[in-house]
Amino acid sequence: GAVVSQHPSWVICKSGTSVKIECRSLDFQATTMFWYRQFPKQSLMLMATSNEGSKATYEQGVEKDKFLINHASLTLSTLTVTSAHPEDSSFYICSARAQFRGGTDTQYFGPGTRLTVL
Amino acid sequence: SQELEQSPQSLIVQEGKNLTINCTSSKTLYGLYWYKQKYGEGLIFLMMLQKGGEEKSHEKITAKLDEKKQQSSLHITASQPSHAGIYLCGADIVGSNTGKLIFGQGTTLQVKP
Q1: What is the mean pLDDT of residues B80-90?
Q2: If you measure CA to CA, which chain B residue comes closest to A49?
């Protein structure tokens, strides 16, 4: 099956610093990736759509200057949390959209990154 | 209110028993996805349904889509401890080939040996 990796799996940082999270599709190309945020015991909240070769589109209420997204290649998207604060602490998960021949359109998720801001 | 409601929120079953989890949308479904998550980990893709009446099975898990009712069900037969986890349904309610999904709040399943 399709594999998506995330790095790092967890990170602890001081308030005010920036943190970069990578999302890679390992065995397929993904023109579209998505970034989600998940709070403890809650569902996933879509933050933004990452498009290869163009600007990301953000969901309502998500600050684009706070959460910088770069889709550098067909297999890599990065999310940078700038000037992180404790309220940014969360579980961040990416997904990569796989569109195969025959019309199958599925999203595969990475293992997530646990961010803790002190 | 949630656009995608899952029920029940949690479930405890004895090993070997069957169970069903439901996912109901308040909007038209253009695609319905089922995932499994262990707490603090990523989502494992189980199945995707697109057409009304569609039914898919993988090992002991079967998912069905009732397009008219805007509802999907996930059925596990003869549950095992390895089935324990959080089951999430994700739905494309936008269409237009955006790929955007919204998720239900999840159903936590415990299987007692």
Answers
A1: 96
A2: B100
